[in-house]
Design brief:
Elements (H helix, E strand, L loop, with lengths): L5 H17 L5 H15 L4 H19 L3 H8 L4 H29 L5 H21 L22 H27 L3 H20 L9 E12 L13 H14 L4 E3 L16 H11 L3 E10 L3 E9 L6 E4 L15 H5 L18 E3 L2 E7 L6 H5 L11 E6 L9 H16 L3 E5 L5 E3 L5 E4 L6 E11 L3 H9 L2 H15 L11
Helix pairs in contact: 1-2, 1-3, 2-7, 2-8, 3-5, 4-5, 5-6, 6-7, 6-15, 7-8, 7-13
């Protein structure tokens, strides 16, 4: 009470630590300690104070996590620096309001009974904020808390609960530690011991990563070639530089001798009908007559029917394969209602793309089914899981084609790699990542990067990947039900937690 500003400072610093715990160097212990600090800061706070503390925590966490949006808007979109910075701050404050609401609710409803009720309530409200951010207005789940635990103890839960379930378990653990520590702040002799125990638990979460069960089995191997063009975003459509980029990708695609060669999202940035004469037909003829198959990003469509952000597959003895991106990026690939004015402030080739199907057929290469997803789509594990509902059509491996060139040499590259690694844990499927500027990697079904190229340089990566058969528990329930089981769990948990504790019966005389 003598220092009412101190909990706000603790919450703000904890939010910064939480952002750094996810990328560029994922630290499960730091993520846990950041939430512990938030719980300590909320102890005894009024609803208003808790809301402000939660807002500071959430805005700092998410603002630092997505600051690289400034690069896309200012450097490549030519938006004035002040407006681009204000837009990032406004987004962070908006997303932080979710955490503010959760912390205010916890301050309002906690403290009514046993400590376990408060712990469960905190975890449920934390899960609520992450689910809301994952799905409201098409979703923006970047930097969800579970991504910090890919290499930690909670990673073993991924094939059961997915990233949001992992985050909820982490929140429960942090809530218990935070409340236990907060109660000992009033007993000065216990503070050192409580802090030591908290650090030991955090170290265990950080360093102990047990191997869980394999729900999948081997399905065969492919040799693969992954291309990283490293074309700067401001050069991608430059008429003077475009021919060199097209020539490099054409030569690298044709030079591959592996079973499959992948090139990034919009590696071919022009519609097929707008390419130099013979370019498209030359690629198709090469792969229809050769040993290798190719999968690469290209826009497709025409003015009357609309356009799609797509991947095209070419292989001998098969018709040209096409995958159209389903989950589009707000402002980048579709313009939300009422925000045309904002898009008009930027000089970007943006527009409204058509959506592809949620469950699309895979590209078959030597009997293995390769399921492409484009850039932002691998944030949505529940949507990728929908491809596993029909076990006969379930893919053997995933392929992500991305272009993170919009965000310069920021840690968006490391963040996106962490996201892909968690998808491999959830679904127990390897992931091939062919990206423009990185991270171009091969990830096995256990989330381990087996082959990699340094980011932000042009290169070709040759590797070996093993496909998998079988379905994880997460793929089984999320593929059929989406995130509804978690929403229902949140609702039931909150209702039970806020109910008055049952009174004991009168004792007999």
């Amino acid at each position: 009470m003598r220092r009412p500003w101190l909990p706000l400072v603790v919450a703000a610093l904890a939010g910064l630590a939480h952002a750094w715990s996810i990328a560029p160097w994922p630290l499960p212990a730091l993520q846990l300690l950041a939430l512990v600090a938030l719980v300590v800061a909320l102890r005894g706070a009024s609803v208003r104070q808790a809301a402000l503390a939660g807002w500071l925590f959430g805005a700092n966490w998410l603002g630092v996590s997505v600051w690289w949006l400034y690069i896309s808007m200012h450097r490549y979109g030519e938006m004035p620096a002040l407006l681009a910075g204000a837009a990032v701050v406004a987004l962070a404050l908006f997303l932080g309001s979710f955490t503010a609401a959760a912390c205010a609710a916890w301050a309002r409803w906690s403290g009514r009974g046993a400590m376990w009720r408060d712990v469960v309530l905190f975890a449920a409200l934390w899960l609520f904020t992450e689910l809301l951010r994952a799905q409201w207005l098409t979703g923006f789940p970047w930097a969800a808390s579970g991504y910090a635990h890919v290499d930690g103890l909670l990673g073993v839960l991924a094939p059961w609960l997915g990233v949001y379930g992992m985050g909820a378990i982490g929140a429960a653990l942090a809530g218990g530690l935070g409340l236990w520590l907060a109660r000992r702040l009033d007993q000065r002799r216990s503070v050192a011991l409580a802090a030591l125990v908290t650090l030991v638990v955090a170290a265990l979460v950080q360093g102990w990563a047990p191997r869980g069960p394999d729900f999948t089995t081997r399905a065969g191997q492919l040799t693969v070639t992954l291309l990283q063009g490293n074309v700067a975003q401001n050069e991608k459509f430059d008429p003077a530089l475009l021919p060199a980029s097209l020539a490099w990708h054409d030569q690298a695609l044709r030079a591959a001798t592996t079973d499959l060669v992948l090139a990034p999202e919009t590696a071919v940035p022009l519609l097929p009908q707008d390419l130099p004469f013979g370019y498209w037909d030359g690629l198709r003829s090469h792969f229809e007559q050769g040993r290798s198959a190719a999968l690469f990003g290209v826009p497709l469509g025409e003015a009357r029917g609309g356009y799609t952000n797509s991947a095209v597959g070419m292989a001998a003895g098969a018709p040209t394969y096409r995958y159209d991106k389903h989950h589009l990026v707000p402002f980048g690939e579709f313009i939300p209602l009422g925000f045309r004015w904002f898009v008009d402030l930027m000089n970007m080739p943006l527009g409204d793309f058509n959506r592809g199907a949620l469950v699309a057929p895979s590209f078959v290469v030597r009997g293995l089914k390769v399921a492409p997803n484009i850039c932002y789509e691998d944030l949505f594990g529940e949507e990728l899981a929908a491809r596993f509902v029909d076990s006969r059509q379930a893919p053997h491996l995933l392929a992500n084609l991305s272009n993170i060139g919009w965000f310069g040499e920021s840690f968006a590259v490391q963040q996106h790699l962490q996201i892909s690694r968690l998808r491999t844990l959830e679904l127990q499927r390897p992931m091939l990542r062919a990206t423009n500027t990185g991270a171009t990697v091969v990830i096995d079904h256990r989330g381990v990067v087996t082959h990699t190229l340094p980011p932000h340089r042009q290169g070709v990566l040759v590797g070996l990947v093993e496909g998998r058969n079988g379905v994880t528990p997460y793929a089984a329930w999320a593929g059929r039900l989406g995130l509804w089981p978690l929403w229902i769990l949140v609702a039931l948990t909150v209702v039970v937690s806020v109910m008055p504790p049952r009174r004991r019966g009168l004792e007999r005389p």
